[in-house]
Specification:
142 residues, two-stranded antiparallel ribbon, mainly alpha
């Protein structure tokens, strides 16, 4: 993160979370083309178009109620991550274990914690039984 965000983190003792629909990626939190193609076989019957439209509206709406704090998990540093998340000369890397980080949350609300997998949206089926592919927890690592 850049130095200003680090100072804010120390001052507020809080992480910054952004709404999923504000990240600039229209595919963030959406289902793939493979999902659309495989649904009839998966559900063993034709799904009415009105039901699919309601499902799509629900999924899109959920993005407005999903807040994200981005972290990068790797054993080595990445020049690409430094460019994305910091300014040219004032970047700071914060190292934290996922379990310790999630256990530090004290808001009292259910928190959904999960790791993001970036997939080929043309070819990869994304599990539909749970919108976020995680279990509601009280800040427990999944």
């Amino acid at each position: 993160m850049d130095f200003t965000k680090f100072v804010s983190l120390l001052d507020t003792q809080a992480l910054f979370f952004v709404r999923a629909d504000k990240l600039g990626d229209p595919f963030e939190g959406s289902y793939s083309k493979a999902n659309v193609a495989l649904r009839p076989a998966l559900y063993e019957r034709k799904i009415p178009e009105s039901t699919m439209q309601q499902f799509a509206a629900f999924t899109e709406g959920a993005r407005r109620f999903t807040y994200i704090s981005c972290w990068h998990e790797a054993r080595r540093e990445s020049a690409a991550m430094w460019r994305l998340y910091s300014r040219e000369h004032d970047g700071i890397a914060v190292k934290a274990e996922c379990k310790a980080l999630t256990q530090s949350f004290t808001c009292g609300e259910d928190i959904f914690v999960g790791k993001v997998s970036y997939v080929d949206y043309d070819m990869t089926f994304i599990q539909e039984s749970n919108l976020f592919l995680c279990i509601p927890t009280q800040a427990t690592e999944l």
